[in-house]
Amino acid sequence: MDDREAEARKLADKLPELITPLGVLVIEGHAGEQDWFSPKLLVPVINRLNSGQTHIFSATEELRKNRRISKLTQEGKLVLHSESLAFYLLKVQEAGLLQLGLPAEREEYGRQINLAEKSLTVPLSLWNQVSRSAIILDEAALIQPTHVSQDKLYSEFRNFLAQSSFRPVWSGYGRGFAFKRDFEDSLQELVNNKLASNELQDKPVILYGQTGTGKSVALSGLAYTIRKEGKYPVLYIERRSRQPLPSDLDTFCKWAEKSGASATLIVWDGMVEQEQYYELSKRLAGLGRKVVLIGSCYGTARLYRSNKNFVEAPATLNESSPTKDKQDEVSRFSNFISRFDQSLGKCAKEWIRQGSNRFLVALYRLLPSTRSQIRLGLTDEVNFAEQEIGAASQGKTVVRKTAFANAFLRAGMITEEHLFSLETQEEIAGENINQLSKLIRLVIVPGRFGLKVPLEILMRTIGKEGVSNFANLLDKVNTDIIQWYEDENGSIEIGARHQLEAQQITQSLLGDAKAEVEYAEELLLNIRENGNFNSDAEIEFAIKLVVSMGPNGIDANYFANYFQKISEILTKLREEQSIQNTSLMLQEAFLLRETIINRIQRQIPLATHDAEQILDKSENILRQAIDLLEINSRNKGKRSRLMVELASVLGTKSRYLLESQNDISRSIIFLHEAQKTAFEAFALVPDSYYSIDVIGWTSDFILRTLDLDLKSRYEIEANIYHAFTLAEAGDLSAKDSERFQRHRMSIGKLTKDDKISEDAFQRLIKLGSSAGYYLKAYEIVREILFKETALDLNEIKLAKNAVQYLQEHRKAINYDARTLFLLLKVWWLSKTGKRLFCGERETLPFNREDWLECLEIVESLMKTSDFYENPSLTYLKGLSTFHLDQVQQSLTIFKELENLVDIKGRRRIIRSYIASNSEGQPKKYTGEVAWIHNNSNEIGKVYVSELQRSLINFMPNIFQRPDIRKGESLGEFHLAFNFLGPIADPIAYYEKYQDKRK
Question: For a Cys-Cys bond, which of 304, 500, 534, 816 suits 212, CB 3.0-4.6 Å?
């Protein structure tokens, strides 16, 4: 019996690990003190499990009275049942809550996500695909951690602090390790409101602030909280070298919607430019995905405070209470720290009140996982890290806590050929260092920007092989100043423990930008492009490192004198390693242009020949990159970005020639070429603002600087006004919208007195310019063209006057894209009183003659090179032909539009207009279902009786007919039009929008 009891004890000790917090321990018929596994042996096992996790069935009265058992039931640790387990299971089965017997066969088993009372299984193939780009928060992430000792709790808390800046430690949120700041309440409220909204969200929520203000912890905490509530699925994108693939995210969100999710939350702690978040939001919304995206970036309140989608993470702890029933942040922070270390809790409030009340300082001083190492102590920690790894790699005993190195050598985990030599010295950035010191510096330079280095790059740079042994060494030695990370695909990256620490260490060890650039060069020249998944990560790492050290980085002024040097490194990489990556070439050219701009702004002397040579090189790089790209729809975005930068280089040439040499004629030539290139870039990607921005700043500078000849001035004015009419301010990011309004105001002040005289007008005609027609018409509608509300009768009259003027001179303007586009805009205003695409489910009071006129203007525009493939014009062409009863031609046009559409965001699927009669009333249609998908969230087809049984798309779920079958009548409906074509629309939806307008 003793042997049996000893064996039972061993097995019982393993039960909590086997059961995990997700499982349940069920015991049938325990005999109390008479049981060979007595309560004395059972109690320690139950205590290690969570409340309510242990159940005893067939519990007798004697068992209930047992002192140990009674105490466990009072504490909620144990639940006693009088009935037997078999009887209980039968009752549960009868209630429909449990299915007994063999499990039903399923194609795939996957991870579980609970939504409301529904449990979803994420298919294994979907899990694997999405894991390339994001973490799916499944039920495993929400497991309530088991109770641990105070020492273990403190150890886990330190681990939480060390890891959270790069990767969320979900169990830490379950243990309450995350200090919740005041701003998190408003952030969560904003996100919850967007998740609950029925509207597609094509603008992200952005959390901004300085390094160390708690953004990463707050975003992970938000993801954890939303998922814990069980209403919405959540994807979390951590900071990594590779960008998330929109197709992966779309696939998951589509699966979630089919499974019944009303929306999906995507949390991307990328610390990237806000434009990347806007781009992703617009793309997912354009695909019809009900997604709320929240991202993180650097920034100040001055830039973003007025935008309701931006939330600030202040660097300063709030010393005043936001509400009567809530403590101020300083007090809460002090109490929070006390949970883990009483001495810190006592000191925290006093330290903060003595002047260290900035949150990043408090966090840095009080919360590092090695609490004794602060500021200069970090440098000591680096020195110790070098000594420790070096000792381990040499097989020497480490005289601090452990002797991992000896253990590694004995176990055969490392060998002599994998060791770093401490004897080998090389000179980098003016200091002689061994390979180990080099390793530390190679990691902390990218680490100061929050970047981790792909292991392959690091190994090439150091010149050693043995990846797995190297990773094990870093993982096991007694330091965590640098750490290694492995993603779902098995790719390994090496990074600093914390970005803020890396910044301090870099400053202490290297001291200047020149040294940092030299270490960056070591890494960049070891990038390889092999066409596989890992090489993509290397290229993305290179791009992010260059961007971080460039004009758009957080330390642009610090690195400004080395922009040309960084560009030369990329040239070397391109020419010597044959890496002709267009994204890197874009950065290479951009840095050269910014070199000139920086020297102009700082008034640094530069020989004219040198400046022109630098800009010529930049131009040539861009033209080579453009030639590398095949001309197809997939490359439109890349081509447009390269052409925008090319336009910027040409514009910079124009400015430099004027300022340095007063070479007016060449300056004007380059200006016209710059603006022509910018318009071509816009034609490729019509919803991008960057090309409009180039036209804005080049026009602003030349108009402000030069007393131009008549033709040049008016051509430039016509170009900039045309650019403004092209831009849709509502689709811009916060930063772009601010720039757009600034350009408009600046140009408005410069040209407010420029009323074209009849003499000047006639001279323009003789010179073969149509700018005069444009400017005269623009002058009529200047005050109403950008109005966001409906026009009044007097304003509509102005629009009609402009239309009349342009139509009278139609022959003269018929090949001028900008004037024809202005005609379309003012014609639409004159007929509807509203801007194009200004609302949702709008009706149009057009008669047949109106539709013919609209179609004629649109087709004239599409014959010009600027607009031959413009999605908005293609949409209007399809809409016009439909209302002219050319239904099949219209459906063909919309099919072509669906294939080439470049419009992103809500506008792609928003139902802008409804088929209507000449009175502006929506037409009603009827039809029967021709085809239906098994899932009511998917598109079906309906035969429309009034359209000779043409097939039109419809969505069963929005008609609240999920069970509708083929052949059944859909009843009466409207036809709405988005950029994917006509779609059946419930009549109630139009009525709802009418009520909203009132």
Answer: 500
Q: How far apart are CA 241 and CA 519, in angstroms?
A: 18
Helices 467-476, 404-411: axis angle to 10 degrees equals 150
Reading phi first (left if > 0) and then psi (alpha if -120 to 50, else beta), residue 232 is in: beta
Contact status, residue 292 vs residue 231, Cβ threshold 8 Å = no
Q: Token digits for 246?
A: 């929109």
CATH of 751-910, one of 3.30.530, 1.25.40, 1.10.10, 1.10.3730: 1.25.40
CATH topology of domain 925-997: OB fold (Dihydrolipoamide Acetyltransferase, E2P) (2.40.50)
Q: Three-state SS for 812?
A: helix
CA–CA gap between residue 734 and residue 736 (Å, rounded): 6
- Sequence ranges of the chain with CATH classification 2.40.50.140: 925-997
In the chain, which residues have pLDDT < 70?
1-5, 20-22, 95-110, 162, 241, 300-306, 322, 324, 343-425, 464-481, 487-490, 530-535, 606-608, 728-736, 738, 752-757, 868, 900-906, 936, 995-998
432, containing H or E segment: strand 431-434
Domain 127-314 falls under CATH 1.10.1660? no
Residues of the chain with CATH 3.40.50: 127-314
φ, ψ for residue 382 (rounded to 5)? -65, -45
221, 236 Cβ separation under 8 angstroms: no
Report the predicted TM-score, pTM, of the whole model to 2 decimal places: 0.72
What is the SS3 assignment for 876-937?
HHHHHHHHCCCHHHHHHHHHHHHHHCCCCCHHHHCCCEECECCCCCECCEEEEEEECCCCCC
CB-CB contact of 790 with 801 (8 Å): no
Phi-psi region of 212 (alpha: psi -120 to 50; beta: other; left: phi over 0): left
